[in-house]
Amino acid sequence: MASDKNIRCHHCAGPLSKEMETSKWTVAPLIRDSFSMIGSAVGGTTSAFYGFHHVMPVVHRWVKGPMWVHFLVGTPPVIVFSSVCAGLAGGAVPALAQLVSSSYHAAQSSPPSEDDKIQKSRTSSTL
After folding, report:
1. Could you give the CA distance from residue 83 to residue 76 in angstroms, rounded to a whole number?
2. Where is this region: Disordered (predicted)?
3. What is the Cα–Cα distance from 41 to 85, expressed in whole angstroms?
4. pLDDT digit string (tens) for 99-127?
5. Measured between alpha carbons, how far apart are the two ends of the chain, in Å?
6. How far apart are the C-alpha atoms of 97 and 94, rounded to whole Å?
7. 27 secondary structure, DSSP code
């Protein structure tokens, strides 16, 4: 029987003990922080371009006056939208990296199931 330190879920092969969870299943803090910074930068920049591209034509149609008034009215919603997207991307990218890492380790550590054995026997058949 497996020791208490190596207990895994029988459904997903995920770690059930804290020692095992912090060993090789988690993404290192440096990588997680790097992904968070990259996600925030990409999310914020992309949403700023997207926001200005779609908000400013609407502002030009509805607000009459000089160009600085258009930017004064149109910039705050774009900044809010950009900040929200940067925050979401900054959290989603590291979470996705953790999911990929955990899935990889689960796939590598789980024993082959009966379905895998049946599939291998079917593909190795000479028929």
Report:
1. 11
2. 105-127
3. 10
4. 887 778 777 776 666 666 565 665 655 55
5. 40
6. 5
7. P
